[in-house]
Design brief:
Low-confidence stretches: 328-337
Strand order of the largest sheet: 3-4-5-8-9-10-11-14
Number of domains: 1
CATH architecture: Alpha-Beta Barrel
C-alpha cells in the first residue's frame, strides 16, 4: 500500500489507516479475539498506520492495539495516539462508562493540556501499549481548551519532536476552523480532520485545507462516512449523521449522491472513502475497523476504481461544492479522477 509523508517530517503513513476506537468497545462489546483478528487482517492487507487514544475504551483500545502489534517489526509501522484526557481513578463508578464505550468505569477522563499532563499522558500510553515510542501524537478535542493547548501542550510536543522522541505532532477535532489555527499558529505538522471533508460536508475548504496547502502541512481524514449515513449503498431514514439521527434533508441528499454514484457504476461508500483524496493535502483516510471482515470491506472500498467524471457530475448537480479540486492528490489520480 502506498505511503505518503507527513508534512516536513520523516513519518510516512499508508494511504489507508486502521482506526482503533472500535476495538475499545465503541458503542458495543468487541470480543478480544475479534479485535486481534482485525489488526492481523489489517497487517496482512498492508496497512501500517494505526490510530488510538486513551479516550477509546478508557485505555482498552491502546492495550489491545499494543498487544496485537507486539512482535511485529517496529520500524515497519506507525502508531498515533492522543493527549488531553488523562485517565484517573473514578471515585464514583456506576458500572459502565458513560461516554459511548462499553467498558467498566473504574477510571474517568480528566481534561489536561498542561505540559505535565502531556508528558504523563504519553508515558501512560507507552505503558498501556507496551511500545517504545509513539510516532505521531495529536491533541485530542481541544475545542474548549485552546489557550492551554496552544501555549502549553503544543510546545511540549514540539520539544519532544525536536528531540526525536516523537516523529510528528498535531491536533484532532470534529471542527475545521480551530485546526486551521493550529496549523497557522503552532508547531503542528498534521491535523486529524473528522467529518468536515466528506461527500456531505466540505466546510474544511474554507479554512484548514487552504492552510495546510499554504504551509506544506498534512491532513488525515477520519469520519468519512459521517457516522454512518454514507456507509451503505442506499441510505435510509434513521441512519446516523455526526453522532445523531440524520435529518431527513440530509438523507435525501445522500440518496441523491448515491444515485449519481450508481449511474457511474460505483457505490456511495466507495465514493465516500475516495472523496477526501480529492484534496492534495489529505495524505490518509483512517477508518474504524472492528473485525477482520470490516477490514476486508474497507480495504476493498479503498482499492475500488472511481469512474472518470463522477466528481464533475456531482459538482454539476450541486451535490458537492464547486471548489472541490478537479483532480486527486499524488498517487491517487490514476484511479480516482
Amino acid at each position: 500500500m502506498a505511503r505518503r509523508k507527513v508534512g516536513g517530517t520523516p513519518v510516512e503513513l499508508t494511504e489507508l489507516g486502521f482506526g482503533a476506537s472500535t476495538i475499545g468497545n465503541l458503542y458495543r462489546v468487541t470480543p478480544a479475539a475479534d479485535a486481534a483478528a482485525a489488526v492481523d487482517q489489517a497487517w496482512e492487507a498492508g496497512l501500517r498506520y494505526f490510530d488510538t487514544a486513551p479516550h477509546y475504551g478508557l485505555g482498552l483500545s491502546e492495550r489491545r492495539l499494543g498487544a496485537a502489534l507486539r512482535g511485529r517489526p517496529r520500524d515497519e509501522y506507525v502508531v498515533s495516539s492522543k493527549v488531553g484526557r488523562l485517565l484517573v481513578p473514578n471515585e464514583e463508578p456506576r458500572g459502565v462508562d458513560g461516554e459511548g464505550f462499553v467498558v467498566r468505569d473504574d477510571l474517568r477522563r480528566q481534561w489536561d493540556f498542561s505540559r505535565d499532563g502531556v508528558l504523563r499522558s504519553i508515558e501512560d500510553t507507552l505503558q498501556r501499549t507496551g511500545l517504545d515510542r509513539l510516532d505521531v501524537v495529536y491533541l485530542h478535542d481541544p475545542d474548549e481548551h485552546w489557550r492551554q493547548a496552544a501555549d502549553e501542550a503544543m510546545p511540549a510536543l514540539a520539544e519532544l519532536r525536536d528531540q526525536g522522541v516523537i516523529g510528528a505532532i498535531g491536533a484532532g477535532m470534529n471542527q475545521s476552523a480551530m485546526l486551521a489555527r493550529f496549523l497557522r499558529e503552532t508547531a503542528a505538522d498534521v491535523v486529524m480532520l473528522a467529518g468536515r471533508y466528506t461527500l456531505l460536508d466540505q466546510s474544511a475548504l474554507d479554512d484548514v485545507l487552504p492552510a495546510a496547502a499554504e504551509l506544506g502541512k498534512s491532513v488525515v481524514a477520519v469520519g468519512v462516512f459521517n457516522s454512518g449515513l454514507l456507509s451503505l449503498d442506499q441510505p435510509t431514514a434513521g441512519m446516523m449523521y455526526d453522532y445523531r439521527e440524520a435529518p431527513p434533508a440530509l438523507v435525501t441528499r445522500a440518496l441523491a449522491v448515491a444515485e449519481v454514484c450508481a449511474a457511474h457504476g460505483t457505490t456511495l461508500p466507495t465514493a465516500a472513502v475516495a472523496f477526501p483524496y480529492s484534496h492534495p493535502t489529505i495524505i490518509n483516510v483512517t477508518l474504524g475497523m472492528r473485525t477482520a471482515e470490516e477490514v476486508r470491506r474497507n480495504v476493498e472500498l479503498h482499492h475500488q476504481h472511481i469512474p472518470e467524471g463522477l466528481w464533475d457530475d456531482l459538482r454539476a448537480r450541486g451535490l458537492i461544492r464547486s471548489d472541490v479540486p478537479a483532480a486527486n492528490g499524488p498517487g491517487r489520480s490514476a484511479r480516482c479522477l
